[in-house]
Amino acid sequence: MTHPFTAALIFATPLVVILAFIAMALLDRRRRGFVQGPGFFQRNGTPIAIFLIGAAVFWALILIVFPQLYMVDYSFHPKLPQIKRGGPEDIYTLENYRYFLFGSTRNTDHWNTTHLNAFWITIFVSTIITIVNFAICYPLAYFMAQVAKPQTVLKLMVLLVIPYWINEILRAFAFRILLGTGGLINNVAIAAGLISEPVDFIGHDVALYAGLTYAYLLIMMFPLYNAIESLDRNQIEAARDLGAPWWHIHLFVVMPFAKPGIASGATLVFMLCAGALAAPLVLGGPKTLWFTPIVYDRFFQAFNWPQGSAYAMILLLTCMAFVSLTMRLFKVSLSEITR
Amino acid sequence: MSADIELDRVTIRFGDFTAVKDVSLRINGGEFFSILGPSGCGKTTLLRTISGFLEPTEGAVRIAGQDMAGIGSNKRPTALIFQNLALFPLMSVAENIGYGLRVRGVPKAERKRRADELLRLVALPDQGDKRISELSGGQKQRVAVARALAVEPKVLLLDEPLSALDLRLRQHMRTELRAIQKRVGITFIYITHDQGEALTMSDRIAVMNAGHVEQVGDGRAVYDRPATPFVASFVGENNGVSGIVEDIAVGMASLKTPLGVLKGRAGAGLTQGALATIFLRPEALQLCPPGAAPDLTAEFVNSAFEGNFTLVFLRAANGQPMTMSVGRGADIATLAPGAPVGLTFSSADALVLPLSRNE
Questions:
Q1: What is the pLDDT confidence band of residue A14, given thresholds at 50, 70 and 90?
Q2: Residue of B nearest to A249 (CA)
Q3: Order of strands, edge to edge, in the sheet holding B66-67?
Q4: B359 in a structural domain
């Protein structure tokens, strides 16, 4: 199905990159002329070292790099029946990307507004949800990391974690039950006389956005908590002693210190949100636009794998570009996040 | 510029624990005032109360006559130097110093000018652009002082800031801090457990123990005329011998001890027949000249040569260890462990203090 040349390229590229890194490491070692401490094999023993390297290679190459590269290749091919693959019609083409932009594989007369809108709404709403998550988590993380007594922190941790023992889809359904037209919130509000007609939370995407916000709360919470917890309390007091009001301390002492935690939390929440599938499927209304279900449909409803690959690539690359741009904007480096 | 500080019957409790009990102090404007005490005596709690991080459970803190109750630490005319300095690691030296001014809305150029000025004051000229991590311990110390002085406090509070430095640097920073205080002329309140620091820098010292103030006075008063047995044994070395007061006359007291009747100046509150302790400084003890009657006898244990003097460790007749310091001229080389040593002292150099109620 794939051209032999392309297949060779897909397998060779990562190997070349790996070999280049090994060569660089060897060169560096030779130039410095010494080896720091015992080697990886001496430290772990040969069998364990081989297993560790093998497992890492398997995970990185077989599970991540090769499938992704295959998807790249897929995305540049036309949709063909099994029998015609590799034949004369199986040429490199941009038609899948063209379809995303114009809704047609041939002409470029009209924009594919449905998909484009869904795409931008996904990116935009994910950004908003990330910001909302930060706004919810920061005060709580600060309270837990700097203010609360250890017993209180423990209780809060348990309260935060227990809901996540429940399956993601069930949690999404719980939101549906709460926010449906016949749901708990509408019933209570009508009974209390606040509203006369039930509000269509699901149709207006309120349920989806609330569910997504809730789904990734912990993912924001823990990096933030870790970052703020390592801040020396004396620095907060020093700032206060020098006359700083509370908002100044947070803005110029706590947040800059917690920046790596904020960045990793925000990156994770944004990426997961933009790639969320379960919540949009369960909580989305009839008119809801979310990009991931569209990608899913390309693969499993339209059975158009090349187009699905193109859509997945577009989402992945846009998210990566957006995240690295934001990080550049806030002057965070990748090494800080992974710290 | 400087301001008087008044602590009026301040008590601070944390739950059941009373960290500071009924402390009243008056610190004069422009004074270098030390609060000296062992760790856990409540001195840091007291400092945090003055700076506004804690509110007194009872009593009042007044700065320049104004009651500080309900006034947060960011609104008080005090600046605190933390034990670990708490410099902001992500800001440069100049940004650290300028932080308090930035909070007050001082424009950037003015902040830069003030930072340069303060860096010269603390003898770190042209280091404003450095990162905090590039500084040595002593330099960080100076930056912390400059940062605190930048907000022009009326009172500078220092919480054992020198404790992390090595001995030589610490001694150097003592003189430095004292000089800075003289130059800026504001009140310094210095917390320490190191009596050497307190004695060398301070105008006056308050000695604290277990949450209360035992004595307030200048270095000489605290060292020569300790008011309580705690002060006598905490400030400087002291040999205490306990006994019963036999007789008090014209300011002198005789104490009947297991080592014989010893005579010294009578401290306040002595009553005949009560338990008391006589304190003999190592430098007050002398070797008894041959032929004279010794006031005390003890046996030689060993000695430590300290350069300009030698410490002699002795064991008194009742088994209690004693320390004596002798000058270079003293002949102790011939003494073997266990050899009897006769000691004399001038009763004017000895002090008899009553055992306090809580001991």
A1: confident
A2: B103
A3: B17-27, B5-14, B58-63, B66-67
A4: no
Nearest residue in chain B measured CA to CA from A251: B103
Fold (topology level) of A113-337: MetI-like fold (1.10.3720)
The β-bridge relationship of strands B32-36 and B155-159 is unpaired
Nearest CA in chain B to A247: B103
> According to the model, what pLDDT value does residue A158 have?
93
Give the closest-approach CA distance of A224 to chain B in angstroms. Answer: 18
The series of mean pLDDT values per 10 residues for chain B, 359 residues long, is: 83 92 92 92 92 92 90 91 92 94 93 93 89 91 92 92 84 89 92 90 93 92 91 90 88 89 88 89 88 86 87 90 86 82 90 72
Say yes or no: ipTM exceeds 0.90: no
Of B209, B229, B249, which residue sits at a domain end? B229
DSSP H helices, A45-183, are: 46-57, 66-75, 95-102, 113-142, 150-161, 168-179
Same domain, B330 and B280: yes
What residues of A are in contact with residue B51 (Cβ under 8 Å)?
241
CB contact under 8 A, B103 and A240: no
- Please check whether residues B29 and B146 belong to one and the same domain: yes
Quick check: B74 and A240 CB within 8 A? Answer: yes
Q: How do residues A272-307 score in pLDDT, each as one tens digit?
A: 999 988 888 888 877 778 899 999 998 888 888 899
CATH number for B184:
3.40.50.300
| Cα–Cα distance, B264 to A244 (Å, whole number) | 56
Torsion sign (Cα): A182, A185, A189, A192: positive
Question: Cα separation of A54 and B50, whole Å?
Answer: 62
Same domain, B176 and B322: no
The whole-angstrom separation of Cα A253 and Cα A261 is: 14
Domain ranges of chain A: 4-75, 113-337
